[in-house]
Amino acid sequence: MRKERLITYQESMNLNNSIYIDARTKSEYEEATIPGAVNIELLNQEERKIIGTIYKQQSPKKAKLKGVELVSPKIPDLIAAVNQLAQEYDNLIIFCSRGGLRSKSLAEFSDLAGIEVYRLEGGYKHYRHYILDRLENYKFQSEIVVLHGNTGVGKTYILKEMEKMGANIIDLEGIANHRGSAFGSIGLKEPYNQKYFESLLWEELEQKDQPGKYIFVEAESRRVGHSVIPDFFHEKMKKGEDILIKASTKKRVENIYLEYIKDIESDQQKFRERVLESLRAIKKYIIKKAGKKTYRKLIELTEKSSFKELTRVLLEEYYDPMYRHSQNKINNYQAIIKAENIKKAARKIIQLYS
Question: pTM for the full model?
C-alpha cells in the first residue's frame, strides 16, 4: 500500500480541479460541511450509534470488528462512487469529523482500488477552526456599499445585475438561504445554519475582498434566517456608504410576486398554507403595527388566494411603516436610485463607483 497522503485544509486550497468527499453520515453532512463537498456516507446514523454503544459498553476492538462487518458489504459501492468522482476531478480530498477512522477507511479502500486520494488532516473539526480563526481576525481590504430600500424594491435583483456587470457583491440572503422576512423561507429548502453560513461568507470574502475595490450588499439586520452576520462584517456595513433604492408600490408588488410565482403555480394550496403559517407567526407584530382589522384582512386575502392584493396591503400597512424609522436615521445617502427598471438601476450604481 502506498504511503498515505495527508493534507491540511490550507494546503488543499492550492490544488486544482479538486473536490472534497465528506465520509460522515448524511445528517452530519446536511447540518454543515465544506462548501462544494459531496457526501459518501461510510456509516449511517443508526450504524454509528450501534458501534458507539459497543465501544462504550464492551470494547474498542469489538466496536471496530462491528464496523468492519457493517462496512464490508458496502465497499464495492463506496469505491464505485469515489471512482466516478475520480473521472471528473484530479484531486479527491476525503474527510470525516476529526480525520479518524471513517476517512482513513474510505481512503484505504480507494487506495486498494488504485484511486489516489488525499485525507484531510483533522477533518471537519480542523476546517471549522480554520474558518473561525480567519473570521475572528478578519481585516477588510474593500469598502462596503449598502443598498437600502423598502421591501420589494428589488435590491437582490439589482445586486445580481451588478454582478453580471462585473461588480463584487455578497448576497447575504443567498448564503443564508433565506429571504430575510417572516415569509423568507417559503419555496426554499431549510435555511443554512451558522456554521455553513460562515463558511460561505468566508469563501465570498476570500474571492472578492480586494484592496481599493467595493463590495455591494443589501441592508440587513444582524439575523438572516437562522444565521447571524458576524460582528466585524455588520460593523463594516454600518460604516459603509449607503444608497437608497426606490420603486413604486406597483413595481414592488410585481417584484415580490415574480419571486414566489413558481411556488404559487406549482402548489397553490401549499403556498397558501405557508403564508397563513407565516402570518400567524407574526400576528402580534402585525396587530401592533397595523391593527386587528388589517390582520383579519390579510387572512381573508390569503384564503382567497389574492396574493397580489395581500402583498400590497402587507407593504403599505406593515413593512413600510416598520422600515421607515431605520431609513430615516440615515441622512447621508450617496444617491437615491429609482428602480422601475432593474438593469438601469444597476447600471447607475456601477457608474457611481466606476
Answer: 0.85
Planar angle of CA 132, 136, 140, nearest 5 degrees: 120
**Structural domain range at position 344:** 139-352
**Is the CB of residue 20 less than 8 Å from the CB of residue 38?**
yes
Q: Are residues 118 and 224 in the same domain?
A: no
The stretches of 137-178 forming alpha helices (DSSP H) are 155-164, 172-176
Q: Residue 95 and residue 178: Cα distance in Å, rounded?
A: 28
- Label the pairing between strands 223-224 and 227-228: antiparallel
Span between the terminal Cα atoms of the chain, in Å: 57
Question: Which of 79, 105, 133 delimits the end of a domain?
Answer: 133
Domain of residue 91, CATH code:
3.40.250.10
Each residue's pLDDT tens digit, 213-249: 999 999 998 988 889 999 999 999 999 999 999 999 9
pLDDT tens readout for residues 70-101 = 999 999 999 999 999 999 999 999 999 998 88
| Gap between the Cα atoms of 57 and 3, Å rounded | 34
Question: Which of 236, 68, 263, 248 is CA-nearest to residue 146?
Answer: 236
CA–CA separation, 345 and 245 (whole Å): 8
